[in-house]
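Sample pair:
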Amino acid sequence: MNTDPVMLDDIDRGLVHALQIDGRAPLRTLGEVLGVSENTVARRYRRLRSAGVLRVVGAFSGARLGYRAWTIRLRCTPDAAGPLARALAARPDTSYVHLLSGGTEISCSAQTRSGEESDALLLHRLPRTGRITSVSAHLLLDHSALPSGWAGPALLSGEQTAALGPPPVDGTEDVTLEEGDRALFDALSRDGRASHAELAAATRGVRLHRPAPAARAAPGRGAHGQAGRGAAADPTTPCQGVWRDGFLRRLASLQD
């Protein structure tokens, strides 16, 4: 990764804002919204990503799945802080792991599927690590702002934003995860703009149901890396037949 300072111009900042709205928007759509060519968008995105300035990742909404969200603060011995932070970051149920000033405190967020999982993490696994001296945990009841609504990169006009904005989502319908969804989430967490071929390869070997012939990926849902607006699989890509069709149907269903 390039560590040299990067100066952002209006096109760069507009691209960041656009990807916050729809992280999987096609390059052509991004170029039309920003008033530049598709090649310019591709070149700017590669530059910002290689410099470590911009990264699009996929994340699921735990609230839609009935998960419990926690903020956890740990105090530990100085020699344990780094290894413990890395171990927490490697867990599938944690995010936003921070090593705080002083080098003896760690803050992180966690999502657990049930009260039993919460108890196992907070009452059994963490306290049993001898170099942890104290643990405090708070159940999150509500939120006022999320990363997807952060106003920091806002630059686009209302018209440009509307061209990228997703349709309304029915938040009342129950969502049930299937066998291949964890592999799909893992792939999107590494690269929210991974191609359909790459995502299908990540779920290869996992049973996915064949959809109706007209099934296609649904419009995008924002910068957390779900499917882009108007995106559809290229039948010439390696993810063909039932794997391609089953993957596209499942990706679309998880967005609704």
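The radius of gyration is 20 Å.
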